[in-house]
Design brief:
alpha+beta; binds 2-oxoglutaric acid
Length: 233
């Protein structure tokens, strides 16, 4: 049933850069993932937590075996490698507004000078680099909803089709942002929103006191050039 839903949305996913998969994560897997992220979370009020595949070996094994792995495999058409996990949460006390980025950097083990790779940056103590678009185009991010995430508590928005023009220069990004309509993608607990890293996305601040925990799992469908290694994989 789940894979049927994935297959039905594949054309839409390739065209738009995102797709909502409804009620695809079983209640017991949501419970397991929620316990894993809450155990790894040091501060309950923090708006999120990076490097979760490093922090939790249990999460790593679920990322290799759970429903997200199977969905990523179907979308990427190859054995996917889980390469990054981040918890995003929002409440009025821990809030932020996301302003139309593309997800351009990947976590890597150490710096290697390779043409087309850069700039380099540090995020929460982990080295990141911007790879060429060809690497990002073979990745998928799966946003697993541990809580409902509606318009009132910062649901994600997308500009459909904006992932198909590679890495956007600032003026191209402004043209997409100002000249195209966005779509709000609300989700219930147990839904997964699949997105391409290159799609322009945004989310508003939350006005609801409820937590809205989203486990963002990224899968790669291609290898990095020799010498460069994923940091979390
Ligand atoms: O969960 C969200 O609001 C999206 C967060 C996000 O994609 C980001 O901060 O880049």
């Amino acid at each position: 049933m789940v894979m049927q839903q994935v297959l039905q949305t594949l054309t839409e996913f390739e065209r738009d850069g995102f797709a909502a998969l409804r009620a695809v994560v079983a209640a017991h897997e949501i419970q397991q993932l929620t316990s894993i992220v809450e155990e790894a979370r040091i501060e309950q009020s923090a708006p999120g937590l990076r490097n979760l595949l490093r922090r939790s070996s249990t999460l790593k094994s679920v990322a290799f075996s759970g429903i997200a792995f199977k969905i990523a495999e179907e979308i990427l058409g190859t054995k996917p490698l889980p390469v990054r996990a981040i918890l995003f949460d929002k409440t009025p006390a821990a809030n932020w507004y996301v302003t139309w980025p593309q997800d351009l950097s990947i976590p890597v083990e150490s710096k290697v000078d390779i043409e087309g790779y850069g700039p380099w940056s540090m995020k929460d103590g982990v080295l990141h680099v911007q790879p060429p678009a060809s690497i990002l185009e073979k990745m998928v991010s799966l946003r697993i909803h541990l809580d409902a995430c509606l318009e009132s508590n910062g649901a994600i928005k997308f500009i459909p089709g904006s992932h198909r023009s590679g890495i956007l220069e600032p003026d191209e990004l402004a043209r997409w942002r100002d000249g195209h309509a966005s779509v709000v993608c609300a989700a219930e607990r147990g839904d997964i929103i699949a997105m391409r890293p290159l799609i322009l996305h945004s989310s508003s601040v939350s006005e609801s006191p409820e937590h809205r925990r989203v486990l963002h799992l990224e899968y790669a469908g291609t290898k990095l050039p020799s010498g460069l290694q994923w940091a979390e994989a």
